[in-house]
Amino acid sequence: MATKAGKTSPWTKAMLGARLHQHLSFSRLFTQIPQAPVLFWPGCSLMGLGYSVLQKTLEVLARSEPEIKLAAACCGKPSRSLDLPAYKKRRAWLLQSLKQAGCQKIYTACPHCTEDLQALAPEGDFTVATIWQALRDNLQASDLVSPPPNLVLHDPCPLRQKPGVRADVRQLLSQAGLAWEEPAHTGAETICCGQVEMLHVLNPLASEKLTQQRLKDFTADETICSYCQSCLNRFAAHGYQTAHVLEALFGVAAQKGWTTRYKCVRQIKGD
Length: 271
Fold this sequence. Notes:
This protein is α/β, with parallel strands linked by helices. The chain has helices at about 15-25, 45, 50-60, 75-80, 85-100, 110-125, 130-140, 165-175, 200, 205-215, 230-235, 245-250, 260-270; strands spanning about 40, 70, 105-110, 125-130, 150-155, 225, 240-245. The chain has a four-stranded parallel beta sheet, with helices on both faces. A three-stranded parallel beta sheet has the order 5-6-7. The longest helix is centred in the middle third of the chain and has 14 residues, at about 85-100.
């Protein structure tokens, strides 16, 4: 139930859904942090694309990081943003698990995971880097598939002040021979998808206003391409065609969502 200010009570459907998401994301069903000095950490949303695209990404990264392994785990950002009581326990579990795994470096794809893992890094004695430059350095023409048509690039709002990451993504797309358009608001002027810091749970009215403002920059015949799967899930829920940058490179996922994520984790575990 929303308040007059548009904010939600602790027991709305959205809040309960977010709590369930975090409970499952930290359960044994959806976690696997392998023993390895280097990890590829796709994050919750990206695992919903399935194993194939992540395995291909790992294969490319392994050309310069032969010891890298794929991790299935949540960074805990939703718990932090919602100030859930379990956050401290989940944060401690992450640190302990990464130390026990012997992790020294993590490659991230999700901008939210990047931020939260970088905050953990000093305590965990590991470093964090995004995958984009490493992909660019190791990509081969034989890795690529035909991309979706009419790509328009959406920059996630956490990267407004990260021009280096934005440049890495664009250089990767150019190297892969992909063509794309820039929306009216891009780069440092990008507009939030409406989900920043779990706004869609904490203040649905403000969240939807942001989403509608952003969607004005896109048309129905375009494929919104981004390097944040959470943003793309938001746009897809409003009926827009979407493709993650990794899908544009390595193939669009046939199915997406929790069932696909569960199957992905099973494959990561080798079940």
